[in-house]
Amino acid sequence: MAERENGVNVGQKVYMKRYTVKDIPPGYFFSKPVYLDDDFVVAAPEMPFTPELIQILSDWDFREVLSEGEPRDSYGAGVTEARLLDSNPDSTLADAEKIKRAEGFFRKLKAYVSELFSAVFMSEPISYNRVAEWVRDSLDRIREEQRYLLRILKNMENAKEDYLIGHTVKSTIIALIIGFYIKLPPHRLIELGVASLFHETGMLKLPVKIYLSSRPLSVLEQKMLYTHPIRGYNTLKSYGFPLEVSIAALEHHERENGSGYPRHLTSDKISLYSKIIAVACSYDAISSYRPHREARDGYTGMLELLKNEGKQYDDTIIRALVYSLSIYPIGLYVLLSNGKKGQVVDVNPESPRFPVVQIFGELNPDGKNKTRETTPEGLYIVRPLTREETGL
Questions:
Q1: pLDDT surpassing 90 at residue 43
Q2: Contact 106, 152 (CB under 8 A)
Q3: Structural domains of the chain, count
Q4: How confident is the model at residue 307 (pLDDT cuts 50, 70, 90)?
Q5: pLDDT tens-place string over residues 202-222
Q6: Are 341 and 385 in contact (CB under 8 A)?
Q7: Are residue 306 and residue 339 in the same domain, yes or no?
Q8: What is the CATH number of the domain that holds 213?
Q9: Any domain includes 210
């Protein structure tokens, strides 16, 4: 059995036990949630420690996990049907129509980013006020349709297109969703949105073969790549953008522990917009296609960020990402405990461990897609699925 330290109660506080990952028997369940640290959940009681999960944790050098519970060879809780969620009676659009609307908005945003990038590439003038107005007019749309936008991010990915545009669009959506969660006021959301749209513009001042390369870069090319935050900052300053926005382009690769670039800043010296964009940008980079590798699923990307190796990212911002997207991010395809397949379509604001899923092939009496909450006692997620595994 896994090595552990005994849990100790002091008043109401419980010190969790430590379990060595490599000693946890594959397929075992824990009686209480399992954490990477005091805050972040990696497995719920109904989720078995599969060989795949153990391998992922080992590959990322997670040697220990924490839990108040005990590992056991079966899930002891009774399985009952999760309650059916009410479909929104105020909505006049079917789920498929909302997805279609979100896809249309995503394409519109990509087209807009493409226009901005063309202007930067050609050194044409750009009005900050006009871009800010565009972001302002888009905020309500992104806020209201965020769960549909998150569902389509993977489906809208096209490996043959310039990934920089798609990365910018997805990072901007995720950054604003984080901004909504931490309750930034409207004027700061607008600044964050503009900063997100332009955070990678320094790349446009580099040869395309560098940032789209599928081969290892030379030492000289790596040095050139590391200059893109400075190039982006100088570009935005030349357009007369506010300092807070320009700084985000300069600092989005800085890390809390000082390991980032170009100035190796530490936590207290990094701007808030830069911290948010760093997390949004990194999450998309982990879970999306890149010229040098295939995309990984959102769950894998979330675990990698939760690991926060070396404390690179701001804990508050990571927590906002988790509670906005859930441990199983919106859009993730999943295998459910009843043997059916589905997709995560919404978060549970009270617990990122139990998102709302749409079950493939099941409809409500009104013809709308059936959605259900995952719960500790009812329907739960067994593991993520690739799109190929869903048969879609």
A1: no
A2: yes
A3: 3
A4: confident
A5: 999 988 777 776 678 888 888
A6: yes
A7: no
A8: 1.10.3210.10
A9: yes
pLDDT tens digits, one per residue of 310-325:
789 999 999 899 888 8
Instruction: List b or e across 253-276, with b for residues whose CB sees 16 or more CB atoms inside 10 angstroms.
Output: bbbbeeebbeeebeeeebbbbbbb
**Residue position matching structure tokens 């985000």:** 248
pTM of the complete model beyond 0.85: no
Domain membership of residue 361 as a residue range: 333-390
pLDDT tens sequence across 16-27:
788 888 888 888
Length of the chain counted residue by residue: 392
Residue 3 lies inside a defined structural domain of this protein: no
